[in-house]
Amino acid sequence: MFHPLAFTKTFALVGVSILAITLVPAVIPLLVRGRIRGERENWLVRRVIEIYQPVLNFLLDHPWPIMWITGTILIVGLTPAVVGEGFFWFLLRVIVALSMVACVWAARREEDSFRRWWWLVAAIWSLGLFILAISAPSYVVSQVIALLLILPLSFGVSWLLGRARLLAQASMIASLFLVAFIADRSMERLGREFMPPLNEGTIMDMPVTVPRASITQVTDDLKARDEILRMFPEIELVVGKAGRAETPTDPAPPDMVETIINLRPEKYWPKRELRYDDALKQTSKVLAAMETRGWIKGLSDDERSTIINDATMHAIGHFDELMRARALQAITAFETSLQERLTRFAVVEIVEMLKAEGHVLRPIREGEIDASTKPLVPQFGAALAHAPDLVTSTKLAQSVAAQLSELGIVESKPDLLILSRTSLGEVVANVRELLGRKRETFFSRLLDSIRAEFASAWGERTKTLNWELVDYAGPAYTWQAVSQLKEQAEAKKLWHAGKATETSLQALRRETEKPFADKLFLWRKTQGDLVKELDTVLQMPGWGNIWTQPIINRVDMLATGVRTMLGVKVYGDDLDEIQKVSEEVAQVLKRIRGAVDVFPDQIVGEGYLEIDIDRERAARYGVNVGDIQEVVETALGGQTITTTVEGRERFPVRIRYARDFRLDEESVKQLLVSGSPGADMTKEARDGVADASAQQVPLSMVADVRIVEGPSMIKSENGLLRAYVQLNVRDRDIVGFVEEAQRAVAEQVKLPAGMYLEWSGQFEHQLRAKRTLSVIFPIVILVIFLILYITYHDFTDTVLVMGLAVPGAIAGGVLFQYLFGFNFSVAVWVGYIACFGLATENGLVMLVYLREAIDERGGLANMTLAEVRDAVMQGAVHRTRPKLLTEVTTMVGLAPMLWATGTGAEIMQPMAAPVLGGILVSDEVVDLLLPVLFYQVRKWRWRRIHARNTEITGGPKERLSSPELVKV
Predict the structure, then answer these.
(1) What is the pTM of this model?
(2) Which of 181, 270, 325, 363 is the most exposed place for a label (fewest CB within 10 A)?
(3) 338 pLDDT higher than 90
């Protein structure tokens, strides 16, 4: 899936690199002329420098704030990624330890300031602990005690540490530890999945039912299910299929049902969803009004909360049903009116196109357009209102042309519906066709116009429908809340209004609905919300719902054999034991958060008609066993009597009894079997037969006919019998669910000897991708490190760039993942790989400017310490313009992807989030912390160089302490 992306990116970079070292240097003298404007002449760069320079000037002398801020960002950024004891668990602990060490080192010369301002430190600590205490889930008494102890404890500890000259180091360590603790307790962990769920625009319903369901019953239930599905205004078309195709390669049993649900474009979905929180507030207000009137009295807090929640849940269910019906009614009426509108528009458009081509012989008279439109509406209106296509537009254009020809408006000729082009137009059409665009025809141009009118009509109607639904929703939900609160109160015997009249209840509704309706806002349902609503509404006895999508379903079935996201394979030798264990596993899985559509295979329970021939009774009536078998075969299964030949095809002709003669086992018992009077036939037997010469006896007299239960399908794998427990995962990551489910099943399900479980599904792809990425990631980082080291031959500078850029990129990427709610997936890891390169590039640019600033002044051996500091400052400031260019271009290129819509947006958004977040965070870390650490490294090297030179020359060592050298 990502091979085209990787190759495209690689080839693009190779091409850009070649152009950068060949064409660009040759073109620069031709394009860059005159005076080159300085950096400070640009207002944006000048404003950024005015902010950046004083901040960096302060941090060079006081590095502890940037150390603490960087450590906090890295800790908070990495915390959501820590799940178990993996790579992020190890990286977070290393970051916490290094951050504490770095902050203690940076604050070692700040003791006097911390000691002088110990009361400010104590106040800040008190505020932080106060916020922590009131936000932590605990009992009220313990919170009060904690709040009373925070103030004196903070001030006492800060005073003692200040006198011991350890306040700075202790504050750094304690604050970072507190940040790590709060982040660990409050931030949810990011999940893991193979790929983000794609929105295919189509839903696939694959329910399962009991094995003994007949074809007739399954067909009737399927029709009922499809009828319910058509009641949703977001659904455009429903097509269902039961059973299997006439092919030996399809092992699907008759209860295999597949229903394809085509959805309308989401921009045409009506806004009909009322958020639960808004509904809860309105229900609370209605209950308060009832309590004010004295209809409900004596509610405790628990009773009030229970009634409000129960009433809201029931009210929302009825409200959704009302809104569905209202929206569907409006859409159905609109589609009916749209048939005539689009047909008339198409006729007018055809006439205008023919007029532009010069084919119209006379002016159109009044009423001729309407007269031409009327007979076309029944033929083409439904197709145009549903979804205009090229076939419909072609046939419509031909019909209109024929009508116009009969009216004498145009002349019937072969090129009537062919666009004429000039020589230049023909060249343009050929070029467009070479570039992959289809050649425009009369019919395709007509289709484009019809589709534009179709989209315009739907857009206008959707907007007005949303307004109508908002006006309808306020009174509708308020009345549902009133009704449900009354029912809940009566059920709990808390209703004290006696027989409240309809008039008084309606008055209460009118009183409470207006404030609610004035602030009401309805939302458009997402596909996930729609699936939940479908699952709630479509509950039928004997059926278990399984919701998926066509493409991912086929991929899952080909890769794993399971038609859902997950499947638990139960292996064993006994079908009854396998069925029992499957049901136990299903019960455990249903209790795990996120499990939906849990359904174990129904191995046993299929009804089989068993006919056991009694040879003694058959001999008594003179009936041969072969005759009995032939009757059973012909009556129930059918018998081929001949073959018809139609061209090159052959069709067998089969006959069997009518359905009434084989409807159930009682009917089968009455099937007549022919025989001859036997010598052993007793008088009683002869008397029981109406015509002994014909010898027609019921099947029940020569065989035992009964229904027995057996397996609906026998599945095997690896030499053992096998069954599935199928389920989907919703509202959580699939890998985390599997890990929790495996632990729960292992603890609660005891497997008999000879049986074992195997987990299968989409998470297997994630595990394979994880193994691959665990090799690729270290290789990527190692290759970047080696390239940097080979370039500069400086291990310290390489560590500075990699040690700041890569962790900063990871922390920023995880933060953006956390904010946008993306789980870890292959798409996300691809974004991280791209982010590492861009973040390292930003650090490399900063390092280049800093090193060049030192080299331009003759190197450390020929500089004073003040000059080193000034060089670092000038190099960092000089990098401002390229920094802005890289950041702005990256944000302009990537930010729109975060809010992209349409096909493929589910993949692009998780890829763009870590890249954008990683670059923004790592770039700020590089801009502020890298110059500080670079200056500290160069200062240490400067002292070593000058100390060595002093020892060699024998000069005085006091020169290092001279005011002009130490002052910075």
Answers:
(1) 0.76
(2) 363
(3) yes
